[in-house]
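ingest -> validate -> predict -> emit
validate: passed (alphabet ok, no gaps, 539 aa)
predict: started
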Amino acid sequence: MIRRWNETSLRTKVSGMILVIVGLSALSAEYIDRRYVAKLAQENFQQEMVAVVRQVGAAITTIAEFHNQPSRELELYKLLASRPDLVEIRLYTLPAGEAGPPSLFVSAGNNVQPKQEGNPILVEQAVRQASDVSDLSGWGREHLLKIAAPILVENRMVGAAYAEFSTAQFDEVLDYQRRLSLTRRLATGAVIVLAINLFLYLKVHRPVRALLAAVESVAHGNMTTAVPVGGGDEIGRLGSRFNTMVKRIRAATEENRKLYDQLQRAHDDLQIKVDEATTEVRQKIKELARTNEILSTTQREAARAQRLSAIGQLAATVAHKIGTPLTALSGHIQLLQEDPQLSLEARRRIDTVEAQIERTSRIIQDLLLYARKPELTVVPLNLNECLEECVALLRPEIDRRGVVPVLALSPDLDKVQADPQQLQEVFCNLIENALDAMPTGGTLTIRSGTRGPTTAGSAGRRAAVEVEDTGEGIPREVQAQIFQPFFTTKKAGRGTGLGLAIALETVRAHGGQISVESEAGKGSRFLVLLPLSDGADRC
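emit:
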């Protein structure tokens, strides 16, 4: 087959290729028309019909207007009369104040006998999903498009609209356009094939055949052959220069051989020089990379040293200014606790005040500890109990801000080896930041669980604590800076910018990680990961 094709004349090959190209073009256009254009037309038709069904509910402004059956029925028949492709339309109403399936309220249609059926599944889906739903399964078989859309009145779903549209006319027009397009493509292709073949025969085939005869003569050794081709076009110029080309072939071949030898020697010399230069450049790049790495490490350490120095000075000042009043307050509280006439409720409140004084003192110590690695008092810690204590401690502030706390704590969470006081400070800081982000109320979700291998005792398992709010969120451009000391997005007087920096140092001291995911206007989610030791006790 290949040999027979190779022996075929150029004219036949060109004609065959033109036929193939034109045929493939027509088939490709037909495929695109059927696959994409027709699909796009169907989607546009579907969207148009969905808009018609939505308009039924959009025109209703009050619940009383919706339940006006004569008025609704008149509107449906008007719509039916204005849409020849509308087969049937129905309105369904939802039970008031109780759950239940929608019930048929009013209908209008062109069917001779109305269909006796319950609520269409499409209507129940539209009500359940609170969005319009389409059924295309009957398009090709029954030429029928079914659409259901919920009806919202006064921001409340009161019912649903269901309609059936005939696609027969649309499909007929689409088929006619396809046939017309295919006929037009075939006719155009036939004209193109005939025109190109005629041109090739007159302007290419005959001159090339004469030139081929001259080439064959030269191939047999007759270097004096003249090409009998005239004219001023490219083929004519080719024929006129053919003899000159033959005369120069031998000289050009010898010249090219010499030039090739010179280029080969030059290439070898250049390759050697390039290899030497490349080796030198690579060595310098490696040295520069090491220098840059050392410089970057030095700069980071210097910046950290400056921050720690500033934090140390601030912590010393705070400890000096606040330590003495706190000591006096603690003494007075202890004296009050010795009063035998205190009620149980008053004693409980005093205990709470004393605990908060101790917590404040510990915070001051944390400021001092931030300048150096925190010293941990590690014990087995139940993270769920720690989180519950944090919520209980901040309950007054949570209630005052109208925030709804949601605790999703895993009962199978293992204990971690950690400092209870320092981790409580971390979680309280994250919860307080979440409350500050929801000044008008919202939802505070606290989750606990396990990340890593699912088998208990497996290496790499980590306890995970998530603190998520529905507040203002953190802009993406400042998220990388929130763990830096003294950086804060809060208003003046609301924060020092040390809370998250201390939390980061504390979590790192426990061998863990802390990260944030946030989007402005959609809330934030902080994730704390702590390592679980093998054989840890269950919570």
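The two ends are 79 Å apart (CA to CA).
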